[in-house]
Amino acid sequence: MGEIRPVYLEDKLKEVEDSGRLDYRSKALPTWCPGCGYFSIVEAVATALCELGIPNENAVMVSGIGCSSRFPFFINTYGIHTLHGRALPSALGVKTANPALTVVAVGGDGDGFAIGGGHVPHAARRNLDITYLLFDNGIYGLTKGQTSPTSAIGFKTPTSPYANPDRPLNPLLMLLSYGASWVGQSYAGDPEHLRSMVRQALEHRGFSYLHILSPCVTFDKTHRTYVNLGMQVHPLPATHDPADKLAAMGEAMKNEQAPAVGLYYREQRPTLDDALDALVEKAGGEKRGLRGGRGRKLR
Ligand SMILES: Cc1ncc(C[n+]2csc(CCOP(=O)(O)OP(=O)(O)O)c2C)c(N)n1
Ligand code: SF4
Ligand SMILES: [Mg+2]
Fold this sequence. Notes:
Layout: H1 9-19, H2 38-52, E1 59-63, E2 78-81, H3 87-97, E3 102-108, H4 109-115, H5 120-125, E4 131-136, H6 171-178, E5 182-187, H7 191-203, E6 208-213, H8 226-232, E7 234-235, H9 245-254, E8 260-266, H10 272-282
Parallel strand pairs: 1-2, 1-3, 3-4, 4-6, 5-6, 7-8
Antiparallel strand pairs: 5-8
The chain binds thiamine diphosphate, iron/sulfur cluster (SF4) and magnesium ion.
Iron/sulfur cluster binds near residues 32, 33, 67 and 216.
C-alpha cells in the first residue's frame, strides 16, 4: 500500500489558485442545495475551459429553466438564461451569428426531453457545432420533485406518491439515432472523469452531447442517489470502438439496466456552419464572420 500523506488546505487552495480555473468561476456562488451533483459540473466546465485556454469572452453558456439552468450565473463567461426548453434554439442563434464562439447549451432532463424535446433531434441532425450538457437527475428539481421523462418506473416522489407508471426515455439511444456526432456519458460523482469528458466534448467540432448522471439529494432519496449510482456506474468496455455506431447503440440499450460512462460514439462530418457557408457562397454572398473554431483562441 502507498504512503498516506496529509493534504493541507493552504496547499490545496494555492494549487487551485495557480491553476487559473478560478478565473472561469463567477463571483456568484451556486444556490443549489448542499450535496447537489451540479456543483461538480461547474468545476468540470471551469477546469476544461481553463485547460483549453478558451478566453472567457469567447464562450457562451445558454440554458433553459430548472435548477440546472441556473448554471450560466456561476461560470465567468457570457451567458443566457432563456425560456424553459429553449436552450438549443437560442444556442443555435448565438453560434450562427458568431461561429467563432464556444457555445455550450446546458439544462436538465425536463428542460431537454419534456418541454424542449422537439429541439434536440434537429440540433443533432444538423450537426450544430455546440456542446450540449444534459444534467440528468431523473426529476424536476426546481419545481419540487415531479417525475421527468427519465424517471424510473415505480419512482415515488413528493408530488407523485402513487409511483411513476411511465417508462423512461433512453437519451443516449435517442441522440445516436438523431445523428449527434459525439455522444458520451459521465457521472457528477466522478469529478475527474467528468472533467475529461467535458473537455473532449468541447474539443469536438460538431454537436457533442454529454449526458451527466447527477443526484438530486433533496427530492430523490431512493433512486438516483450517490449510493445507488456509485454501485451502478461502470466504464464502457475497453474494447468499445466509438467509430462503431451499432455497437454504441447496443451499449446504450444496456444502459437501461446499468449506466456505463465514457465515449459512446464520435464521427467527423460537416457542421451546420459549413452548410451555411456553402449556401452563402452559392448564393453569391459574403462569408460570415470569424472562423476561429471551438476551443481555440481568437487572434
Ligand atoms: C413554460 C413553462 N412551463 C413550466 C415551467 C415550470 N418549470 C420550471 S423548471 C421545470 C422542470 C425542471 O426540471 P429539469 O429540467 O429536469 O431541471 P432540474 O430542476 O431538475 O435541474 C418546470 C416544469 C416553466 N418555468 N415554464
Ligand atoms: S432541488 Fe435537487 S436538483 Fe435542485 S439544487 Fe436541490 S438537489 Fe440540486
Ligand atoms: Mg431534472
